[in-house]
Design a protein that fits this description.
Number of helices: 12
Radius of gyration: 24 Å
Distance between the termini: 63 Å
Strand order of the largest sheet: 3-2-5
Helix content: over 70%
Structural class: mainly alpha
Strand content: under 5%
Length: 343
């Protein structure tokens, strides 16, 4: 296999027809260059990834196995758990593979693919959190009309629109990146490819890319956030109108878990972009990105299971059912052929 051609950092690859020196790969620097720390980083991220996948799978299994949780609120939660698994799986497995093989290389195609799915699942996270806020708004402010408003048809439509919006947004952003030219021998100071990092590393004019990126961030990220703020302003207003303290506590407890997840998601997301803008290319930006892409999806199942009696009850029933059914005992009567041979 021929080794890749490496040019000085100052040379721009214009990707003109007939040019054989097209950009083919990037280098993901990750967190530490010290080989003695790599096993620790590998173990830490592997543990967090397994906890994320296992925790969100438990939420999915608990909701699907318990008919009492077949409601709009838990339908959206199941979708959020699925998206969180996909969101983390977009970046962490590649990083674990690079650590294990002691390689920092990611191909240009893989980097674009990673950016594409990262945008899709982060957008879905934002949309689903806004939909869940609207669901809580209807449940608390219009309880008598809840089943009519939040019909199965509307719930499915809201999720479908979220997917379509996120996919179209991702296609727009990645198509804009494909038109850029890059320096050869590029180093990305992160453990994964991110849209803003790729735009910063381009050597061609990125004005239009930055314009589209920030406009889309305001539209796709800001609009759901405004919806969340509006929903919770109405919820708080409705809770203040409840006379009894027990009624106020019961109403607030139904949305406490969601409010915790929203706060965690938006605070860590804001931290990513603030640290990226303040300290470009530093490890603090990569650490903030970890909080956003790995830690938040890992904590979501704990927040919902620890603060939600319905989920805790469903998990207990699911565990009891699993214990009763397994392990599977192979009985001789299930194998007529063996019975015949024995006789």
């Amino acid at each position: 296999m021929m080794s890749p051609i490496v040019f000085p950092r100052g040379q721009c690859n214009l990707m003109e027809p007939g040019n054989d020196t097209r950009i083919s790969e990037f280098l993901l620097l990750g967190f530490s260059d010290g080989p003695e720390l790599q096993p620790l980083v590998f173990g830490l991220f592997l543990s967090m990834y397994l906890i994320t996948v296992f925790g969100n799978l438990l939420i999915l299994l608990a909701i699907s196995s318990d008919s009492r949780l077949h409601t709009p609120m838990y339908f959206f939660l199941a979708n959020l758990s699925f998206v969180d698994i996909c969101f983390t799986s977009t970046t962490v497995p590649k990083m674990l593979w690079n650590i294990q093989t002691q390689s920092k290389v990611i191909t240009y195609e893989d980097c674009i693919t990673q950016v594409n799915f990262f945008i899709i699942f982060s957008g879905l996270d934002i949309c689903l959190l806004a939909i869940m806020a609207y669901d809580r708004f209807v449940a608390i402010c219009h309880p008598l009309q809840y089943t009519v408003i939040m019909s199965p048809w509307l719930c499915a439509l809201l999720v479908l629109v979220s997917w379509i919006t996120s996919v179209l947004h991702s296609l727009l952003q990645t198509s804009m990146v494909l038109r850029l030219s890059f320096y050869t021998g590029l180093e990305i100071p992160h453990f994964s490819c991110e849209l803003n990092q790729m735009i910063q590393l381009a050597c061609s004019d990125t004005f239009l890319n930055n314009l589209v990126m920030y406009f889309a961030a305001i539209l796709v990220g800001g609009s759901p956030f405004i919806g969340i703020l509006y929903s919770y302003s109405k919820i708080l207003s409705s809770i203040r109108g409840i006379s009894s303290a027990q009624g106020k506590y019961k109403a607030f407890s139904t949305c406490a878990s969601h409010l915790s997840v929203v706060s965690l998601f938006y605070c860590t997301g804001l931290g990513v972009y603030l640290s990226s803008a303040a300290t470009q290319g530093s490890h603090s930006s990569a650490t903030a990105s970890v909080m956003y892409t790995v830690v938040t999806p890992m904590l979501n199942p704990f927040i919902y299971s620890l603060r939600n009696k319905d989920i805790k009850g469903a998990l207990k029933r699911f565990s009891a059912m699993a214990v009763r059914k397994g392990p599977i005992v192979l009985r001789l009567k299930n194998f007529p052929g063996l019975q015949a041979s024995k006789s």
